[in-house]
């Protein structure tokens, strides 16, 4: 363990004005609190906080962050308290130590629901003070470096947690070196044989081809020297995990992998960056599609550099990164560069991102996530992706994750633009909404006021922001439909007891049943979360106690039809008990029963003498009323069978089924089902709509115009 004066010397190397007494007091306090505690390796426990503080000095962080590192385990593992640290070191350090403690207590690899909730807490802690997560990341880095002393099962758990959460988070914050090291340390735990096999192949490769890195470095330095460009050139082999991931993605073996070496060129000015790029491309062949200019289009965490991949005479590919010294500092420290000290003052780096600004840009992407699960999905989507840069027709730059679609582009401009999207043009050509965008493309979004998001867009979108916005819009649209249906169901239920579903009655019922207003109550009725009869019973308990309604005789299902006349439900609207109906007489053919809102009723506006006032008999109707459902389902084994079973579980019979559209990924079909009444039909639709493989389900209304429906013959049984 390094001593306190050695730690102070490390801080003084970049911050001569450091408060040495503060660090000494924190060192003594931490040593006293952890006295008698030991790590699994047998070392005194306090060696760990000291090592974390030492690692943070490499990032040139301020005194409060160094002190927080020394004390970060005291609240959790010792008799120390928040109040004690606040009294000794002040509220700023106490808040940071408490923040690290709370992050430590989050079980980020627990169940999906718990993980989502805890991950949201992690980002809330970050929003208070980003230095908290810097300490936590460094704490995790040291723990991973010494993980061999833990139990095997604990090693695997921590490795998975680090690989899934902390490594990508470090990358998202711009600390790519930390991300790569964390991933490689996790790789050694999760797949030690895979990592060792790559290391063995590196040894063989070096034996066969010699010191490739030194040779290429000398070549680059020689070429830059001739061009009179002052630069620092460093080369290295890529880490085993990075190589393994590339082998997995491309499904190729190590021998066929070419770009396993990377070289970094650090120059003095931005102009030198582009001059260096010219020298490199003149000397070696550039690989098409492997050029990225993050200087003109920097990443949101402040990262700036030119990336290019070139091929030598032997066909071996190498990646070259070109940047200035200021850019290199941000590339190494990421968002942490904001706190970097030099000569006792904050280092002025024009490329360092203000942490508050960075957090605001991150949180903007996740604000639309309405619940923890959506938040977790959004965060993971954002952290695991690289970026592409596209242009609006006005030339504005829109940053998106790699693999983004025009839907993501539209929502990145504005949620309202996303909702109104009807078509997209990329570089002047109309393209499907699922097209993957590439760097430098110009994207024009065509909108229409009447347009609204489609359910299929969720699968097309790749950004968390777009997915969350689409889901929220669909929920709002569904809620509007639920309110409308709930109002009709409530009206019918109240009418059954001779009452009216007035606004006042619904508001009273909403308060009694614990809903926030009558609209919430109606939405719950429409979504089958509560029955309309329950609402009536809450207001009129005595009426609700009436005996159960009797079964309705099928031949007397409709009241108002001459007993001698034949009648039939109109195939265009297929009315069912519970809906308001009207009859249309057909000379010599009886009566056709239509729903009151059937579009065909407009044909009979001038023939009022043919209208017959009808209503359904009260009571329980037999499930003999055929209704057609228009359903879109996934084209996958077992889906249709499961949907049929789901319908049967709702006590509804399928009388006919026909496909009207077949695509590689989905089927659209019409299903005739026999239901009792409107509530039975609604319950059936809601049950189907909740199935993950049902993209859409709705009641089908036949488009019959200027036709007289077939009327039951005298020998047929009335429907």
From TrEMBL:
Its EC number(s): 2.7.6.5
Pfam families in UniProt: ACT_4, HD_4, RelA_AH_RIS, RelA_SpoT, TGS
Molecular function in Gene Ontology: GTP diphosphokinase activity; guanosine-3',5'-bis(diphosphate) 3'-diphosphatase activity; kinase activity
CDD domains given in the database record: HDc, NT_Rel-Spo_like, TGS_RSH
Entry keyword set: Hydrolase, Kinase, Transferase
Domain TGS span(s) in chain numbering: 382-447
Catalytic reactions on record: GTP + ATP = guanosine 3'-diphosphate 5'-triphosphate + AMP
Top-rank taxon, per record: Bacteria
Domain HD: 45-144
GO cellular component: plasma membrane
Gene Ontology biological process terms in this record: guanosine tetraphosphate metabolic process; nucleobase-containing small molecule interconversion; response to starvation
Domain ACT: 628-702
Protein family per UniProt: Belongs to the relA/spoT family.
Biological role: In eubacteria ppGpp (guanosine 3'-diphosphate 5'-diphosphate) is a mediator of the stringent response that coordinates a variety of cellular activities in response to changes in nutritional abundance.
Designated name of the protein: GTP pyrophosphokinase rsh
Organism: Jannaschia faecimaris
